[in-house]
């Protein structure tokens, strides 16, 4: 684990009284730490338009409701999904957009009916901040697949129950319903814990669902944010782990993170030598790949789990599924309970993200580097610099 020092920040009153805003509601109350029960404004980094660079501004924050907690955000991871959404790879976005769904911080105020969290608690927020709570999936504790109403409320680039836009974790503060914040165990420093809230759970959930463990062979395609945590978690679960990367450039890192083997997908011999080998292949690649080649790496009844969410459709040849009764599946983040389970598992096994801690003004450069696959292995924003 790197950067294991947790620095405690105090609320920056100069930042939170900033009135430099794109929001036209001049009546919005100015944020003060003493008045969380009133609406306020929060200093953030936002993109004002699709593909625009991120810049400092303020956005509205709702008054603390009875079940809400106010979080002093300390760290926010940069997920490749943030870039997909700012770039509108998945469809029209809501702007200004404040990305960030890998959020770690400390509770600074609680609503009148809050019972699960207290002031001073170390908490994390992931990709969603609400769900219908009534559909079959919500009742079964699979909130990430909520089918009620308009489904889950995304942490940003979404709309809450009242229709107002949600803003994410590239921010000094966040207000969230207590049920949608997870407890970060004391053993996990907040900076290396932040990426677990999306990247960590996104690999943990399929590894659990498809039974990664002793005697099972797992391949992780792409050694980026998701991929490096996939290696660490699959190894901790007892599986035999192979990284499939575009080149051997990061081989030493991959082996240090826990991989038993590391192969380059640019070498055709890789696909011949590893044919029929794996029980589970996790595809974390952010671009479209020819999945047929990767399905060929599965043994009989093996599963390729699509985690990457590229803008373009993925393609495959039918025979790659027919032969060996192979499966192609997908998986999206994880439930609240499973995210808590993952955080506890990571604390127990000493697993955090390997991070590059950056100031907020470095976000745009970090985006460029993520797009160039130059990430080692998650950028995390020190939100004290917003
Ligand atoms: P990332 O840090 O950029 O890692 C992606 C890795 O894919 C890169 O490091 C690179 O690894 C490999 N790669 C990139 N471009 C490639 C190309 N053209 N051909 C082959 N390999 C390529 O991204 P991330 O944050 O881990 O996210 C990965 C994807 O998962 C994104 O599409 C993101 O939106 C999606 N995602 C999905 C979920 C979900 O719930 N399913 C959750 C979070 C993120 P190498 O250099 O090792 O080849
Ligand atoms: Zn994400
Ligand atoms: Zn639901």
Describe the overall structure.
This protein has 386 residues and is α/β, with parallel strands linked by helices. The protein is 23% helix and 24% strand. The protein is built from twelve helices and 17 strands. The strands form four sheets. Strands 3, 4, 5, 8, 9, 16 and 17 form a seven-stranded mixed beta sheet that branches. A six-stranded parallel beta sheet has the order 12-11-10-13-14-15, with helices on one face. A two-stranded antiparallel ribbon has the order 1-2. Strand 13, helix 9 and strand 14 form a beta-alpha-beta unit. The model is unreliable at 1-31 (pLDDT under 50). Bound molecules: NADP nicotinamide-adenine-dinucleotide phosphate and zinc ion (ZN) (2 copies). One zinc ion (ZN) is lined by residues 79, 81, 101, 127, 198.
Task: Please write out the topology.
Elements: H1 13-16, E1 40-47, E2 54-61, E3 68-77, H2 80-86, E4 103-110, E5 122-125, E6 128-130, H3 136-139, E7 153-154, E8 173-177, E9 182-183, H4 190-193, H5 199-209, E10 217-221, H6 225-236, E11 240-245, H7 251-257, E12 261-264, H8 268-273, E13 278-283, H9 291-295, E14 298-306, H10 319-322, E15 327-330, H11 336-349, E16 355-358, H12 363-371, E17 378-382
Parallel strand pairs: 10-11, 10-13, 11-12, 13-14, 14-15, 16-17
Antiparallel strand pairs: 1-2, 3-4, 3-8, 3-17, 4-5, 5-9, 6-7
Helix pairs in contact: 5-6, 5-11
The chain binds NADP nicotinamide-adenine-dinucleotide phosphate and zinc ion (ZN) (2 copies).
Distinctive features:
single chain, 386 residues, alpha/beta, 7-stranded mixed β-sheet, 17 strands, disordered N terminus, binds NADP nicotinamide-adenine-dinucleotide phosphate, binds zinc ion
């Amino acid at each position: 684990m790197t950067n294991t020092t947790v620095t405690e920040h105090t609320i920056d009153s100069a930042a939170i009284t900033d009135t430099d805003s794109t929001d036209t509601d001049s009546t919005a109350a100015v944020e003060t730490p003493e008045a969380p029960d009133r609406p306020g404004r929060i200093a953030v980094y936002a993109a004002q338009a699709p593909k625009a660079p991120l810049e400092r501004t303020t956005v509205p924050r709702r008054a603390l409701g009875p079940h809400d907690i106010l979080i002093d955000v300390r760290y926010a991871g940069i997920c490749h999904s943030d870039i997909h959404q700012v770039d509108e790879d998945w469809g029209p976005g809501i702007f200004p957009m404040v990305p960030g769904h890998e959020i770690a911080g400390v509770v600074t105020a609680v609503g009148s009916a809050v019972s699960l969290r207290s002031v001073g608690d170390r908490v994390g927020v992931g990709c969603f901040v609400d769900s219908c709570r009534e559909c079959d999936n919500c009742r079964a504790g699979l909130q990430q697949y909520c089918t009620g109403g308009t489904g889950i409320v995304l942490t940003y680039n979404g709309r809450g129950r009242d229709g107002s836009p949600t803003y994410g974790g590239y921010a000094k503060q966040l207000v969230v319903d207590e049920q949608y914040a997870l407890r970060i165990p004391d053993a996990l420093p907040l900076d290396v814990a932040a990426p677990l809230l999306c990247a960590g759970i996104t690999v943990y959930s399929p590894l659990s669902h498809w039974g990664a463990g002793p005697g099972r062979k797992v391949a992780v395609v792409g050694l980026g944010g998701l991929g490096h945590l996939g290696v660490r978690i699959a190894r901790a679960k007892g599986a035999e782990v192979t990284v499939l990367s575009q080149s051997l450039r990061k081989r030493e890192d991959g082996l240090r993170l826990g991989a038993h083997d590391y192969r380059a997908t640019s070498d055709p011999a890789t696909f011949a030598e590893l044919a029929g080998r794996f029980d589970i292949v996790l595809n974390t690649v952010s671009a479209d790949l020819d999945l047929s080649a990767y399905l060929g790496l599965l043994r009989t009844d093996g599963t390729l789990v699509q985690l990457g969410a590229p803008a373009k459709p993925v393609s495959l040849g039918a025979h790659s599924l027919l032969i060996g009764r192979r499966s192609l599946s997908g998986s999206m983040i994880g439930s609240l309970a499973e995210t808590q389970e993952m955080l506890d598992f990571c604390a127990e096994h000493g697993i955090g993200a390997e991070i590059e801690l950056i100031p907020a003004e470095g976000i745009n450069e970090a985006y460029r580097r993520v797009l160039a696959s130059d990430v080692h292995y998650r950028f995390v924003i020190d939100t004290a610099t917003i």
